[in-house]
Write a structure and sequence with these properties.
Layout: H1 12-17, E1 19-28, E2 31-39, E3 45-49, E4 55-63, E5 69-76, E6 83-87, E7 91-98, E8 118-120, H2 128-136, H3 140-158, H4 162-176, H5 183-190, H6 194-205, H7 209-226, H8 233-239, H9 245-256, H10 260-270, E9 277-278
Parallel strand pairs: 1-9
Antiparallel strand pairs: 1-2, 2-7, 3-6, 4-5, 4-7, 5-8
Helix pairs in contact: 4-6
């Protein structure tokens, strides 16, 4: 049996532009990992977001004029084109990296309606008590445990549609193939027609199977670049089955707004791997 492949990527500029970045990998029940960082500067930062098939829940802890803790909670849905997220000055962030299709526990949201959007969760009725509990938590461990307890209850209460299970099965195949699989191949591997696969993906989750393949492929590629696993961009281009170097540059720029060489230079300059503390 082929060893299971896990998607544990992250939006890299939370690492590159945030401070004191740490993470704890989970890889269970739709959660990839938990992570935290802060913005200790005197100015807000616009963090770059790349194309991404996963979701992120961002708990933003700040202080009001009286010194009391405030909390704003964002859901960053699947990102379908490069954009930015505002990281506010003098705030700390506790975040949850969700695997594709794992935001179904939020009662008021259709997952397809979160694609390409940033949703304020603490304004939703079903999330108010959840967010109030999270606001009281003071450190990484207590925030993680509180989230897991609330998340488990919300998932149990919301149940799961058969279409979600099908999406997960096909997403697992896509992840196992590191995104390098065609929809026609998914048809053979899953036993479902490509028309039905695209119907489930589009109608239920707001992205096509091809889009998820592309974003998963890009996330694995990005992870390799972040870890300096390949000796050259030409080798990466070949490993990820781009037609040629110009095709690689074009697709990378569509996902990031920058070129592979510009991104690689920044990863090296800021020492990406040294910026991450695993806890």
């Amino acid at each position: 049996m082929k060893e299971k492949t896990d998607l544990i990527s992250i939006q890299p500029y939370f690492v590159l532009d945030g401070k004191n970045f740490c993470q704890r990998v989970l890889l269970q029940n739709g959660i990839s990992h938990f992570y935290s960082f802060c913005n200790s500067s005197s100015e807000d930062i616009r963090i770059k977001l790349f194309v991404d098939g996963c979701g992120n829940i961002i708990f933003e802890y700040g202080k009001d004029d009286d010194g009391k803790t405030t909390l704003r909670t964002h859901l960053i849905g699947s990102t379908i084109e490069p954009r930015t997220f505002c990281v506010r000055k003098n705030c700390e962030y506790f975040c949850v990296r969700l695997q594709p299709c794992a935001a179904g526990f939020i009662r008021e949201l259709d997952q397809k309606d979160t694609v390409g959007k940033i949703v304020i969760l603490d304004e939703l009725e079903s999330m108010k008590d959840f967010c109030a509990m999270m606001m009281e938590m003071k450190n990484f461990d207590s925030r993680m445990q509180t989230f897991l307890e609330c998340y488990s209850k919300a998932r149990e209460a919301s149940g799961e549609k058969s279409s979600t299970e099908l999406f997960r099965q096909i997403a697992d195949i896509i992840i196992q193939r590191r995104g390098m699989v065609k929809v026609s191949e998914l048809e053979k591997l899953s036993g479902y027609s490509s028309r039905y696969i695209n119907h489930i993906f589009g109608n239920e989750f707001g992205i096509s199977a091809k889009q998820l393949c592309s974003s998963v492929k890009f996330q694995f590629l990005l992870d390799d670049m972040n870890k300096n696993k390949s000796s050259s961009l030409t080798k990466i281009s070949s490993e990820y089955k781009f037609y040629d170097q110009s095709h690689f540059i074009h697709e990378f720029k569509n996902c990031t707004g920058t070129t592979p060489s510009e991104y690689a230079d920044e990863v090296m300059k800021k020492k990406y791997r040294e910026c991450i503390l695993n806890v």
